[in-house]
């Protein structure tokens, strides 16, 4: 009788066995570890997600916990060593991929299980509003003649590597001007002290909209809706299909599959909430959703691209 | 004008104005607790603010920002422990005055100066913000290097005693600022394979240690000294009367004007920071004091309780608060590290500072601007209330028990910035080093300026040289970089003036001081 | 440092000699360490270290030549500040080792109160409890700071 009932029940409930298992997860609050200071891009997006997720989640709440320091390594290491029970999530960014190779972090990418991706921030080529370069072609042509002074967030950042990637596929040469903090980079570009910059779209968009800077090309497979006249890298003759930093969730290796599935499903539900997508776009972060498998592909792709560049340029530690 | 009215309308919503007043009161308390400063307060508040309407959250932050810069003076005066870095210099003359039994007067000077500096800069923010913001854009890498040089030169006024030790202190600060991954190649410098040091020595715990923990050690040694001498431990000064005599107000007017001007100018320049404004203003005030008052009957020495020594740094630091928002709101470039935190607060409400903020969220942008004015207006009465109530009861705690309280607050404040135990060690080591420097008579001021300006100095130098393909003359190029050339010249002047003054005085010993120096009219 | 006993002759009377020597050593060390950096990261810290060593030398020489007027008095610092630093170090180690917040903090406060000159077991206990409770309320409850996690769940 019992066996029959269980079988019957499982047939009736159909495919939603994972939901039945997940009924006992979560039973307490979940920590979403943000390895950066409050107010940054990762923190802001994490809080927007947590806000919506907490309206959907039952049995516990998602708490954003800031553990900053060491360019993200402190919080990332903390998350990699946390108990794999699904109660510690990491707000995973591209730096998780490069930090072990470049900064000697003790974890590896394999220590994390991808859960889902919620934002891709493609790289853009930015020039001051008063710049003589009207198009990406002119920009590259000028850089082929004489190295251009390009503002980047720092040596070995994904923005620096995007420049190195452009140097690989074109004859262009850049003189990198590492400038810490977006405010100071903005000062250099708005004031016309540098020839251009490689920025993530999320940070560039509002300044492009207000006319302080001009976007020349976007390293994405499709044009941005807001800037329909800005070509993609490939359209502009730069053979890089996508160069984007990513933001997503991951959990420590060893977390049960059903827990990962529950979280992944939660992230999808968040993405399907209109209030969430609106808030994300308003803050300058294009909302997307990729499940665990897709997210893994994005990570692997990024790792493949960057490891070549790191090795070729001797950036590794 | 309509827009300003819109700002007022948004601000005068009862819940918003209440938040502003609450923020001012909270900021006063936050500032007056050693170990907690506006940076730490914001770090813990920004997550909270997510659940609040943006206008309330930002009004509260403006209140905290303005008042914390003033509140730091309270413990600086009462127990010589600066509540925030901005009260570093106030502690010298302020505490000396308090020990003379005039704590009330010292506090009164500090608060009045803060309010005056704050109002001056909020008026500038209100009226000239867009026009002045473009000044920040004239500053490229070359100018930023010259600015850092000018900043380092602002300590000259402090080096009255031993010039070489002052320079050594500045070098220690600059060296400590090189810890972390090198900006030009990413090479780990002085990190000893510790990931916590990759981005440099964590800054907030470092400051907490240099000010709070070092002062705690000193307090402890003082108590030990007193107990050993067989005296009972002297009580903390009582606050007493807070009345400001009219002639003192008249005497301080020029100091307020000068310091507020310096604070406003420095505040608008990204990368200069509050401390640079304070040092420059202090330097100017000290020159004025030596010219007009030193050696007169009834006057104390500089550093022994001179009212200018309180008025100058306090009006300068509050003049920085609102003016640091000028480039932030107009361009999106923060004037200093605290105003940078407003970016985060705006970001979690889906707003980005810059020109678009005025077109898309004009109510919020103008609300922030007028909030600075109102915050400074309500700060004066609130400051007195807080001093009369909270501070009076806090400083009734016996001095012996105060030591542990300060230590714990500083350590937890350091820890709270990133929830990292490593920060506690940073604060402890920084405190021990600062205390050792004090024992060795090495001034701390230059080291702190070095720490703050160091990263900018190195990166702007190497970037300038990389962009000019190694041409060192760019810094003094009067055609392409006139601002840089002028600042380098001004820095030279700051170094040479004391030397020249000394030389002239010793040559023409018979002449009066006024004749030897280009003196402004006496008040 | 107001009432330091300067009457006793001691090597520390020429304090600037030692201060200068210390600065000199620190400067040299920084220089030496910086020589191991890569080409473009090296010169700036190396120059700073060299200048610091030179400044240290100058301080030491002036300390040697001029009759030192101010003696370095270490009794106070050694008997009060140093023990306090040790107490704080032990506290930080305990926090890091997962012994929770309350117990180490109570002990640390008691030790600092004793160093500060508070006497009487009951008084120390009451003061320490009050300070610990106030700090816990302020940071853990009001400011929502995650205090270091204890290793076992029944500790706070």
What do these coordinates show?
The complex is a heterotrimer of chains A (317), B (523) and C (156). By secondary structure, chain A is of the alpha/beta class. Chain A folds into two domains: 14-120 and 245-312, Bordetella uptake gene, domain 1 (D-Maltodextrin-Binding Protein, domain 2), CATH 3.40.190; 122-218, D-Maltodextrin-Binding Protein, domain 2. Chain A has helices at residues 2-13, 17-21, 41-56, 73-80, 95-103, 136-145, 158-169, 182-190, 201-209, 257-271, 274-282, 292-312; strands at 30-34, 62-66, 88-93, 112-128, 148-152, 174-178, 196-200, 213-218, 244-252, 287-290. In chain A, strands 1, 2, 3, 4, 5, 6, 7, 8, 9 and 10 form a ten-stranded mixed beta sheet that branches. Residues 6-21 of chain A have low confidence and may be disordered. Chain B has helices at residues 2-11, 14-32, 38-49, 54-71, 73-79, 90-137, 141-153, 163-176, 203-228, 246-268, 274-292, 307-323, 325-331, 337-347, 355-360, 362-394, 399-416, 422-439, 445-467, 482-507, 513-516; strands spanning 180-181, 188-189. Chain B has a two-stranded antiparallel ribbon. Chain B is globular. Chain B starts with a helix and ends in a 7-residue tail after the last helix. The relative contact order of chain B is 0.18. Residues 511-523 of chain B have low confidence and may be disordered. Residues 5-11 of chain C have low confidence and may be disordered. In chain C, α3 runs antiparallel to α4 and α4 (102-115) crosses α5 (121-142). Chain C is flat, with a radius of gyration of 23 Å. Chain C has five helices and no strands. Chain C has two domains: 11-65; 75-142, no CATH class. At the B-C interface, α3, α8, α9, α17 and α18 of B face α1, α2, α3, α4 and α5 of C.
Short overview:
The complex is a heterotrimer of chains A (317), B (523) and C (156). With 317 residues, chain A is an alpha/beta fold.
- The CATH top-level class label of the largest domain in chain A: Alpha Beta
Total domains of chain C, how many? 2
Mean pLDDT of chain C: 85
Distance between the termini of chain C: 39 Å
Q: CATH superfamily of the largest domain in chain A, called what?
A: Bordetella uptake gene, domain 1
Structural class of chain A: alpha/beta
Which secondary structure elements does this structure contain, and how are they paired or packed?
The complex is a heterotrimer of chains A (317), B (523) and C (156).
Chain A: H1 2-13, H2 17-21, E1 30-34, H3 41-56, E2 62-66, H4 73-80, E3 88-93, H5 95-103, E4 112-128, H6 136-145, E5 148-152, H7 158-169, E6 174-178, H8 182-190, E7 196-200, H9 201-209, E8 213-218, E9 244-252, H10 257-271, H11 274-282, E10 287-290, H12 292-312
Parallel strand pairs in A: 1-2, 1-3, 5-6, 5-7
Antiparallel strand pairs in A: 3-9, 4-7, 4-8, 4-9, 4-10
Helix pairs in contact in A: 3-10, 3-11, 5-12
Chain B: H1 2-11, H2 14-32, H3 38-49, H4 54-71, H5 73-79, H6 90-137, H7 141-153, H8 163-176, E1 180-181, E2 188-189, H9 203-228, H10 246-268, H11 274-292, H12 307-323, H13 325-331, H14 337-347, H15 355-360, H16 362-394, H17 399-416, H18 422-439, H19 445-467, H20 482-507, H21 513-516
Antiparallel strand pairs in B: 1-2
Helix pairs in contact in B: 1-16, 2-4, 2-16, 3-4, 3-14, 4-6, 4-12, 4-14, 4-16, 5-6, 6-10, 6-12, 6-13, 6-16, 7-19, 7-20, 8-19, 9-17, 9-18, 10-11, 10-12, 11-12, 17-18
Chain C: H1 15-34, H2 39-65, H3 75-96, H4 102-115, H5 121-142
Helix pairs in contact in C: 1-2, 3-4, 4-5
């Amino acid at each position: 009788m019992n066996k029959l009932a269980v079988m019957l029940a499982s047939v009736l409930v159909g495919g939603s066995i994972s939901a039945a298992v997940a009924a006992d997860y979560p039973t307490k609050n979940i920590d979403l570890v943000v390895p950066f200071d409050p107010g940054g891009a990762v923190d802001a997006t994490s809080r927007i997600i947590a806000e919506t997720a907490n309206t959907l989640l039952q049995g516990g709440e998602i708490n954003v916990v800031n553990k900053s320091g060491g360019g993200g390594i402190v919080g990332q290491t903390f998350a990699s060593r946390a108990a794999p029970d699904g109660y510690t999530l990491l707000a995973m960014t591209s730096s998780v991929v490069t930090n072990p190779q470049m900064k000697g972090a003790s974890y590896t990418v394999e220590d994390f299980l991808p859960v889902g991706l919620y934002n891709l921030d493609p790289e853009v080529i930015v020039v001051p509003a008063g710049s003589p370069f009207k198009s990406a072609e002119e920009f590259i042509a000028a850089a082929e003649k004489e190295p251009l002074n390009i503002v980047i967030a720092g040596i070995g950042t994904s923005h620096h590597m995007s420049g190195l990637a452009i140097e690989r596929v074109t004859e262009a040469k850049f003189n990198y001007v590492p400038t810490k903090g977006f405010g100071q980079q903005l000062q250099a570009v708005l004031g016309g002290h540098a020839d251009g910059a490689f920025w993530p779209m999320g940070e560039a968009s509002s300044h492009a909209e207000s006319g302080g800077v001009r976007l020349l090309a976007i390293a994405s497979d499709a044009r941005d809706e807001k800037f329909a006249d800005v070509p993609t890298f490939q359209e502009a003759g730069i053979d890089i299909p996508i160069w984007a930093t990513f933001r997503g969730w991951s959990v420590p290796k060893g977390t049960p599959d059903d827990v990962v599935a529950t979280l992944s499903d939660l992230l999808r539900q968040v993405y399907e909430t209109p209030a969430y997508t609106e808030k994300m776009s308003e803050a300058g972060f294009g909302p997307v959703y990729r499940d665990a498998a897709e997210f893994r592909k994005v990570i692997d792709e990024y790792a493949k691209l960057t490891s070549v560049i790191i090795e070729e340029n001797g950036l590794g530690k | 004008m309509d827009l300003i009215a819109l700002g007022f309308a948004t601000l005068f919503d009862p819940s918003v104005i209440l938040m502003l007043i609450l923020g001012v009161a909270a900021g006063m308390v936050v500032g007056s607790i050693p170990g907690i400063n506006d940076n730490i307060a914001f770090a813990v508040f920004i997550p909270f603010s997510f659940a609040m309407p943006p206008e309330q959250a930002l009004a509260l932050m403006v209140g905290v920002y303005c008042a914390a810069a003033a509140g730091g003076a309270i413990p600086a005066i009462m127990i010589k422990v600066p509540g925030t870095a901005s009260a570093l210099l106030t502690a010298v003359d302020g505490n000396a005055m308090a020990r003379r039994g005039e704590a009330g007067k010292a506090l009164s000077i500090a608060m009045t100066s803060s309010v005056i500096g704050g109002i001056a800069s909020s008026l500038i923010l209100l009226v000239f913000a867009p026009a002045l913001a473009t000044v920040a854009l004239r500053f490229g890498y070359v100018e930023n290097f010259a600015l850092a040089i000018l900043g380092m030169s602002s300590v000259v006024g402090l080096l009255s005693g031993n010039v070489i030790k002052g320079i050594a202190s500045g070098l220690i600060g600059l060296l400590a600022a090189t810890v972390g991954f090198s900006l030009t190649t990413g090479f780990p410098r002085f990190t000893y394979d510790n990931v916590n040091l990759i981005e440099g020595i964590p800054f907030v715990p470092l400051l907490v240690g240099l000010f709070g923990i070092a002062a705690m050690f000193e307090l402890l040694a003082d108590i030990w000294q007193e107990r050993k001498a067989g005296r009972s431990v002297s009580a903390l000064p009582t606050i007493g009367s807070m009345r400001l005599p009219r002639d003192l107000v008249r005497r301080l007017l020029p100091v307020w004007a000068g310091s507020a001007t310096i604070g406003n100018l420095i505040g608008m320049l990204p990368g200069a920071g509050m401390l640079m404004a304070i040092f420059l203003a202090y330097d100017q005030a000290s020159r004025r004091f030596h010219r007009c008052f030193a050696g007169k009957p009834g006057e104390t020495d500089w550093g022994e309780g001179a009212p200018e020594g309180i008025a100058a740094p306090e009006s300068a630091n509050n003049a920085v608060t609102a003016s640091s928002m000028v480039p932030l709101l107009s361009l999106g470039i923060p004037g200093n590290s605290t105003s940078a935190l407003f970016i985060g607060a705006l970001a979690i409400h889906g707003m980005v500072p810059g020109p678009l903020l005025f077109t898309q969220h004009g109510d919020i942008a103008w609300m922030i601007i007028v909030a600075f004015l109102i915050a400074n207006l309500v700060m004066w009465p609130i400051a007195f209330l807080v001093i009369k109530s909270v501070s009076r009861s806090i400083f009734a705690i016996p001095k012996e028990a105060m030591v542990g309280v300060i230590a714990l607050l500083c350590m937890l404040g350091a820890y709270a910035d990133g929830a990292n135990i490593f920060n506690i060690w940073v604060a402890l080591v920084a405190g021990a080093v600062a205390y050792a420097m004090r024992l060795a008579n090495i001034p701390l001021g230059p080291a702190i300026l070095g720490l703050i300006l160091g990263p900018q100095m190195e990166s702007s130098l190497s970037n300038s040289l990389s962009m000019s393909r190694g041409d060192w003359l760019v810094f003094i190029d009067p055609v392409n970089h006139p601002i840089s050339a002028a600042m380098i010249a001004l820095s030279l002047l700051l170094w040479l003036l004391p030397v020249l003054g000394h030389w002239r005085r010793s040559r023409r010993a018979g002449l009066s001081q006024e004749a030897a120096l280009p003196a402004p009219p006496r008040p | 440092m107001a009432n330091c006993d300067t009457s006793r002759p001691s090597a520390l009377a020429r304090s600037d000699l030692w201060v200068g020597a210390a600065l000199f050593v620190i400067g040299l060390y920084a220089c030496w360490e910086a020589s191991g950096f890569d080409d473009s990261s090296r010169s700036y810290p190396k120059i700073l270290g060299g200048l610091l060593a030179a400044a240290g030398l100058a301080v030491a020489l002036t300390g040697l030549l001029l009759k030192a007027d101010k003696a370095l008095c270490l009794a106070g610092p050694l008997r009060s500040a140093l023990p306090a630093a040790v107490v704080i170090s032990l506290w930080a180690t305990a926090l890091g080792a997962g012994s929770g917040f309350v117990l180490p903090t109570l002990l640390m406060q008691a030790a600092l109160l004793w160093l500060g000159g508070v006497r009487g077991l009951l008084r120390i206990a009451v003061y320490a409890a009050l300070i610990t409770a106030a700090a816990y309320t302020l940071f853990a409850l009001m400011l929502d700071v995650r205090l270091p996690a204890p290793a076992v769940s029944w500790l706070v």
